[in-house]
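I have been asked to look over a protein record a colleague put together. This is what I was given:
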Amino acid sequence: MARHGQHVSAKGPSQRQLRVGEEVRHALVQVLERNDLREPLLMKTSITVTEVSVSPDLKNATCFVMPLGGGDEESVHDVIVALARAAKFLRFEIANSTKLKHTPALRFMHDTSFDDAGHIDKLLHQPEVARDLVKPDVDGADGNGANDGDEGDEEE
């Protein structure tokens, strides 16, 4: 419980939230691998579960998923909708395969972290950004004549 003046959201997820999230993620992956689902789209699509974020009360879980190999927006949306339809069944299967006292309700969202990383990589490789990332030459780059004191010290 948060003390007066502390905000729970500023601290990030607790160890328990992280453990429960990982346990739910592993159980969800096992259920999806077995292909016990009645949804035709889910039976023929390989799905990557990248993260499961659990609420502080451990009653709700947001599952970040994406079809293997990405896909266009419409196919990703169809997969998310199909997973939402199968959420009750998936929750039941997770409850049977884990030792959690209460299995969280599942909500599915498209994971955009790979798209975001690709966009940042593309930005960093643009010529106007790449020139700012190059380290300047240390020897004589400042234009002050850093080697001025060395002239005339040669033996004759």
